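Final report, Chapter 2: Outcomes

The project's central promise was a pipeline that accepts a single protein chain and returns its three-dimensional structure in a standardized token representation, suitable for archiving and comparison. That pipeline is now operational. To close this chapter, we reproduce one record exactly as it appears in the project archive, with the input sequence first and the structure output second.
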Amino acid sequence: MKLFQFEDEILGTNTFIEQLSSFIHKGDTVYAELDVMKFGKLYDTQIKKDELLHQIFLIFFVLVGASGNILIPSLSYSWGNGIKEKVFDVKKTKGEVGIFPEYFRNMEGTLRTLDPMFSVLAYGKDKEHYVDIRQNSFGQGSVFHKLHDDNAKLVSFGLKQYDPTFVHYVDQCFDEQVEKLGYRISTEFSGEFIDYKDHRFFAKHFAFMRSLDSRVYFDETNFTNDLKKRNQLHTVSLGNGAISVSSCDAVYQVGMEGLKKNNMYWTKFKPLDAREDPAHACKI
């Protein structure tokens, strides 16, 4: 199906599949972060939103096949500072990261991690494995730990920069195994869960966070340059957007080596008068 048009370029479902098939294969597990409207204007303005989003899903499903897995973030920050009613309903709580994750969350066959801050959606053969997590967003037994164990593919689909949420797992590993980072800290949250059986219970959860008033922000320049030097970051340009793919192993290795040389490897300080970028704000 034809999806987008940018100048004289028409992008269809098969265009994306063909361009990505060299990097994503049958049986792969992919963790994808998406901005689906960056590639151009809609080819058919009459297309229904759910049909467009279904075609985006089909791109990934065709690539990984029935033996693979698709994981999408559905971050809600439900127990964050300033939230009066700290409740995370695994079935009903909406995510805050775009229209495709919301479509994916409501799709039949999708499961979600019981994480009130950084929940992740899983679809595929091993979805039960990925959503069976401990109460630590980026620590041992987290979904990101499992993605690393399985060397999943980390995909940036239409985003301006390559900064997979997985980097916070690398941060926590470095902080726990090498030296304290200083700009992030393991933070305890508490609130109410509602699980898939509609059981309500209070619990604690931990996430590796930085505060909203921190001047430190993620900068991908060193990180992506080092991945490219090793031929471990693959980027294709389509229309007005781009898609980048690397592996958990590559991101972990490059990140840990970079942090050992300079623990500010993928961060910079923003000016005192700069506004916080909500995409990277950690709500403590």
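Archive annotation: Residues 274-284 have pLDDT under 50 and may be disordered.
This record, like all others produced under the grant, will remain available to the consortium after the project formally closes.
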